[in-house]
Amino acid sequence: MMMQIELYFAPLEGVTDVWFRNIHARLFPNTCTRYFAPFFTPTKDNLLTQRDRFALSHENNHGCIPIPQIMGNDPELFLAAARELTAMGYDEVNLNLGCPSGTVVSKKRGAGFLSETDLLDSFFDTVFNDSLFSPPGVSARMRISVKTRLGMFSIDEFPDILAILNRYPIAELILHPRLRTEMYRGEIHSDMTAHTIQHTNHPLCCNGDLFSYADVLALQKQLPKMPHAFMLGRGAVANPNLFTEVRQALAGETVTPLTKNQLQQFSDAMLEDAKSRLSGERHVLFRMKELWSYWITLFEDADADRKRMKKATTLSEFCAATASLFARCPLSPNPTFSPDR
Ligand SMILES: Cc1cc2nc3c(=O)[nH]c(=O)nc-3n(C[C@H](O)[C@H](O)[C@H](O)COP(=O)(O)O)c2cc1C
């Protein structure tokens, strides 16, 4: 029997929030196996803000209960926040070791935690000695998965990082094979993904620049064995049908690409949602401009409408531009996100 591959929706802060997840799960149900929530940062005064609680509450995630993600380097705060999450019904939490943003890294969090290997080691030591995560397996109440980059400045940092991760009973390792300095641009180090799948003790999830089913098939070919999962981010924001396409391609079936009609329904639902809960046209416009920065890359001959969208200062100007785009421009034959368009 063929192994069922796991396909995850990556967390994108400010994009794949609770509202986005709900709409994706409603219009493209059961196409990805898990959603990962964008990170929250517990503090001593506030383990989870009201906003974090709302976004993670099971009752607000219909068909899209995510894996929550914690940003931080303090094991006690991590444990306290994880306890709160168990009370909310969660049995897994993800640790963010990848965020490249300057404000995060300067606090030695996210990718910044990767250059503090002693601190990282003692973080896991403390966490895995706590009864919440120990003993691992059936009796622990919670599991930890880790989402990591290769290091801060050089891929030579990665062997030490991987050696630490290998010492602990991590449930799954999600690898974005770039350095912090590379942010989200440039070639990914897919040779490092191949190296990691051979040398990790954990199930591996591959992330990074998987924008089309062809990208997934190409990566799969480079790997010595099938990973546990693929995680899709920007490509799936742009093409919400991508999980279906990847699943079909991996099964050797004919791929049914995204249609304009599907994208229109998705964008209409996002617009309705934004109008219903955001106060003021400016906020709605901002949300739609952000989402359209992904969707626009799927179209051919879209330069004129792209300019109109960018220039729009009112929602009606913006909607006129998107209506013109849908009427005028074809989707590319295999609609695929492009970071350069
Ligand atoms: C706008 C934006 C926000 C992101 N927010 C998060 C986040 O909250 N947590 C996280 O682990 N990764 C975050 N990421 C990284 C993505 O989860 C993913 O690793 C990255 O986009 C690479 O995958 P992709 O090439 O499929 O998009 C973010 C990326 C972007 C572009």
Could you explain how this protein is built, in words?
By secondary structure, the protein is of the alpha/beta class. The chain has 2 domains: 6-250, Aldolase class I (TIM Barrel, Alpha-Beta Barrel); 260-328. Helix content is 43%, strand content 11%. It contains 14 helices and 8 strands. An 8-stranded parallel barrel has the order 1-2-3-4-5-6-7-8, surrounded by 4 helices. α1 (18-27) runs antiparallel to α11 (260-277) and α8 (213-222) packs across α10 (242-250). The longest helix is centred in the C-terminal third of the chain and has 18 residues, at 260-277. It starts with 5 loop residues before the first strand and ends in a 13-residue tail after the last helix. The site of flavin mononucleotide has 23 residues, from β2 and α9.
Enumerate the distinct ligands.
flavin mononucleotide
Query: Helix segment count?
Result: 14
Mean pLDDT: 96
State the fourth-level CATH superfamily of the largest domain. Aldolase class I
Brief account:
By secondary structure, the chain is an alpha/beta fold. Helices cover 43% and strands 11% of the residues.
List the helices and strands and how they pair.
Elements: E1 6-9, H1 18-27, E2 34-40, H2 50-56, E3 67-70, H3 75-87, E4 92-97, H4 102-105, H5 117-129, E5 143-148, H6 158-166, E6 172-175, H7 190-199, E7 204-207, H8 213-222, E8 229-232, H9 234-238, H10 242-250, H11 260-277, H12 281-295, H13 303-311, H14 315-328
Parallel strand pairs: 1-2, 1-8, 2-3, 3-4, 4-5, 5-6, 6-7, 7-8
Helix pairs in contact: 1-11, 3-5, 5-6, 8-10, 11-12, 13-14
The structure holds flavin mononucleotide.
